[in-house]
User: Which sequence fits this backbone?
């Protein structure tokens, strides 16, 4: 151990990923002295860089709608607020319906979505093809379109938060995984790495797919499991597609899939495997590409001539109900959790970071209290997110 460094902080954030880096920034902005401990050599290298950059407030529950509406405010004004280009594109999200079943699901969600201020509507097949002219018209019933959703670069965003957090004095220690956490009288008294033993008033678990391992070090069970998902990117072509297209129809081997055209021309896409692929294995499979491309070409035949350039696989930190976990850990009074962000951690990062900073300061708003009812660590985990 080297003890020549400063080892006492107001807050220690574990993990510099989609949620950890913005959280460190907002904690420092609220006046705290912050240390971030990260096991790999730089920021955003865990699940963050595997995300395809989709950002939507189009969810099925009030908490994620509220959080993501706030995130969209942050993403969309990032350039003005921070000066960084994070490739924000207000491209919108389009959930397609090719059967009555999906039409009913999407229409039934509209009521909740609209009641929470979402700019979203249902369009019939003909109207929907005015928004996305290249959709296969056969059996197309229609879909919902939310024009204010969009996309941005997870790596640029994370790096921008990192730079601004450093400007506020946050210390980042890379290649320094947490090995032990000491708990005394229901409180974390020390966070131990191979290099040092640190103390802080608050410790924030932002360790993504590894969050339950960090939880165990502090003696608590967190229902967060790694669930692997694959994605791919094509060569760039002239822009012809506006929104992120999401097809929620299940098919053999998959539940849903989604794709969009990046501002630089590439089509980027993902599929949700069925059954889930639990575990930390991030080796690509040979089944992903044939499965997803067949489904995509079915709904958009024009895609059949575009060449795929690269595939990759990463981890969703999944919870049993598909909702994130934000709040104080039961039984360990200074342990804050920003974990279990499932397939939406990039979009939840900015608003989640703000929320965690308000909790750390002890100043949650009325809106935060509403959100915490859905995402708190001591909920029963019996619900089910419908647009995972
Ligand atoms: C294929 C794919 C597509 C996706 N697309 C989207 C999308 O379009 N939009 C979206 O919002 N989300 C998307 N996601 C989900 C998103 O990537 C995750 O929800 C998000 O990155 C999780 O953020 P996190 O900060 O919890 O975890 P991470 O970003 O993984 O950060 C956790 C960090 O903790 C560090 N760590 C772990 N253990 C330790 C330790 N012992 N000590 C110190 N540090 C530690 C890790 O190295 C890592 O850097 C996608 C995911 C995948 C795989």
Assistant:
């Amino acid at each position: 151990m080297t003890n020549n460094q400063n080892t006492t902080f107001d807050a220690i954030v574990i993990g510099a990923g989609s949620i950890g880096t913005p959280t460190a920034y907002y904690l420092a902005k609220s006046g705290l002295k912050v240390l971030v401990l990260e096991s790999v050599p730089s920021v955003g290298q865990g699940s963050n860089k595997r995300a395809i950059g989709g950002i939507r407030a189009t969810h099925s529950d009030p908490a994620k709608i509220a959080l993501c509406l706030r995130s969209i405010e942050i993403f969309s004004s990032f350039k003005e607020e921070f000066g960084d280009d994070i490739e924000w594109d207000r491209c919108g999200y389009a959930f397609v319906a090719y059967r009555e079943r999906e039409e009913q699901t999407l229409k039934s969600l509209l009521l909740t979505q609209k009641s929470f201020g979402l700019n979203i509507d249902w369009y019939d097949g003909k109207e929907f093809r005015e928004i996305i002219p290249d959709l296969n018209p056969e059996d197309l019933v229609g879909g919902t379109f939310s024009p204010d959703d969009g996309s941005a670069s997870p790596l640029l965003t994370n790096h921008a938060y990192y730079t601004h957090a450093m400007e506020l004095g946050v210390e980042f220690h890379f290649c320094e995984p947490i090995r032990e956490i000491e708990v005394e009288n229901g409180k974390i008294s020390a966070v131990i790495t191979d290099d040092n033993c640190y103390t802080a008033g608050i410790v924030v678990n932002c360790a993504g797919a590894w969050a339950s391992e960090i939880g165990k070090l502090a003696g608590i069970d967190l229902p967060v499991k790694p669930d692997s998902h694959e994605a791919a990117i094509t060569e760039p072509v002239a822009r012809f597609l506006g929104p992120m297209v999401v097809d929620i129809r299940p098919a053999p081997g998959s539940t849903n899939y989604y794709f969009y055209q990046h501002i630089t021309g590439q089509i980027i896409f993902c599929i949700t495997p069925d059954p889930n692929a639990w575990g930390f294995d991030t080796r690509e499979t040979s089944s992903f590409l044939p499965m997803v491309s067949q489904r995509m070409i079915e709904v958009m035949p024009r895609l059949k001539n575009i060449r795929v350039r690269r595939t990759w696989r990463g981890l969703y930190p999944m919870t049993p109900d598909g909702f994130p976990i934000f709040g104080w850990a039961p039984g360990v009074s200074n342990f804050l959790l920003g974990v279990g962000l499932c397939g939406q951690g990039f979009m939840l990062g900015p608003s989640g970071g703000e929320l965690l900073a308000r909790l750390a300061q002890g100043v949650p708003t009325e809106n935060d209290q509403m959100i915490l009812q859905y995402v708190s660590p001591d909920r029963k985990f019996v619900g089910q997110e419908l647009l995972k």
In short: The longest strand covers residues 225-236. The first helix runs from residue 20 to 29. DSSP finds ten helices and 18 strands in the chain.
